[in-house]
Amino acid sequence: MNAEASHWLCTVCGYLHDGAEPPECCPVCGATHDLFEPQVEKVTVAQPPATGLWRCLNCDHLHSGDAPPDCCPVCGAEPEQFEACEEATVQEVESVTERHVVIVGAGIAGVSAAEAARQASSTARITLLSKEAELPYYRLNLTRYLAGEIEVDQLPMHPPGWYDERGIDLRLGTELRHIDVSQRSLELTDGSALDYDRLILATGSHPFVPPIAGSNRENVTVLRTIRDAERILASLRKGLQCVMIGGGVLGLETAGALLRHGVDVTLLEGYGWLLPQQLNRIAGEKLATYAENLGIRVRQDVRVKQIVGDERARGVALEEGEIVPADLVVVTAGVRSNSYLARLAKLDVNQGVLADDSLRTSQPEIFAAGDVAEHRGVCYGTWAPSQFQGVIAGMNAVGGEVEFGGIPRSNLLKVLGYDMMSIGQVHPDDGSYLTFEWGDGDDYCHLVFRDDHLVGAILLGGMHYSAVVKQLIETGQNCADLLHGSPDAAAVAAFLDTHSG
Fold first, then answer.
1. Which of 103, 138, 278, 425 is most buried, by CB atoms within 10 Å?
2. Nearest to 111 by CA among 98, 96, 95, 128
3. What is the DSSP letter of 249?
4. Domain covering 100-206+336-397 in this structure, CATH number
5. Topology of domain 410-501, per CATH?
């Protein structure tokens, strides 16, 4: 170990850890301590704004201000569900020319990039392309719209005049066909061309539809856009039989939204329990029980063979031989990065478009941010990293020099109104780990220790341990005094209670 180091950089995901020793386990990606490198000087990172920044613990939305908002505009969370955090301060940079920055994609990464570029440079020409016809909106709010909790006019991130006021040329219904890297030119699907000095790819991701026979039937859909939501809403009626293929967060939230309309919902999950990446079997089964008590029929460890019917889907056939009746089929089987245009342009692409610490791709004048970007082997695919990457890419596109070192994060979710947290290594892979668990009813706590350090945790229901668990993992605090006394679960809970104070 380097005795002079006070910061440790995870070489897998870029998480920066403060302390004399590296953490036993990276709280972001789960990498072991030997994959950390000492950093005597702290890596260049963005500094918090003077006004303060607040992160929603439910959906990762970032709010600027002296206090959290009365209500999260994305998920509706209350003020107490926000925590103070850090984000880039957008500093003005010198711009010797009126550099033209083109941003492809108007999700949270693209809009954040446009705003940051404008704040950093008053002279840059900024063009924001969106293939959707609607104003850029909060995609995470689509299930709330589907549930009837909000109206369609509450979805946009900003009012219509916001972009004009900032000199951002927002072009709706505009899709990119080809990138000519050598000429720094874009070919659009309407046949027109657009030159750029700097290009930011914020093209996001698309729903993954497994190769299931019959998935092209007219009442088989996904939920990714406002039009998808409106198509689903138009088909609803009381007693309609809907089958959800995929038991992730989107599938569960969509199922819950459809229940509001009196729909009979069956959710199919191929794994042995729900949210297998975030939860262990006990927690996943508790979530399934919770969902079933709401009225969702949960089927786990099943394999979809085909979607049967005529022009329309009439049911979902399982490999086990059963046919689940369906008037509507919604596929929520995850997403994949929209990286095909980058591949055609010969940029380096793996799961996403490869980007360095400044979020530059293999072509220095092209940046990538959000779901489409892969940074140090990680495609984050969540709200906060996308917003943060967008800010950094926007600043650097107009001449800034800011680096993205990764975002320490825990997976704190609110699914169907059920609070849950998953952080660090929650699936021990050998006998070197020590685990404790306890719970009652919907509440559950699962802690994972290794080498006298807390390296992972799952919390369901009550979240009163969430802050101390996150702190213990991220700071790598030594828990030898607790563990060497051979404690039981009650003693570990008492330890958390003490440190919570």
1. 103
2. 128
3. H
4. 3.50.50.60
5. Enolase-like; domain 1 (3.30.390)
Edge to edge, the sheet with strand 304-309 lists: 304-309, 313-318, 323-325
* pLDDT tens-digit readout, 229-271: 999 999 999 999 999 999 999 999 999 999 999 999 999 999 9
Query: What tokens appear for 38 in the block?
Result: 């000492």
Give the whole-angstrom CA distance, residue 382 versus residue 407.
11
Name the nearest CA neighbour of 401 among 101, 112, 43, 17: 43
Q: Where are the domains of the chain?
A: 53-85, 100-206+336-397, 220-333, 410-501
Tokens 């991220």 correspond to 474
Map tokens 């779901």 to a residue.
Answer: 371
Question: Same fold for the domain at 100-206+336-397 and the one at 220-333?
Answer: yes
Residues 355/347, Cβ–Cβ less than 8 Å = no
CATH number for the domain formed by residue range(s) 220-333? 3.50.50.60
Mention every residue, 6+ apart, whose C-beta is less than 8 A from residue 6.
18, 19, 20, 39, 40, 42
The total of other beta-carbon atoms located within 10 Å of residue 32's CB is 17
Q: Cβ(189)–Cβ(152) under 8 Å?
A: no
Give the predicted TM-score (pTM) of the model.
0.80
Cβ proximity of 103 and 186 under 8 Å: no
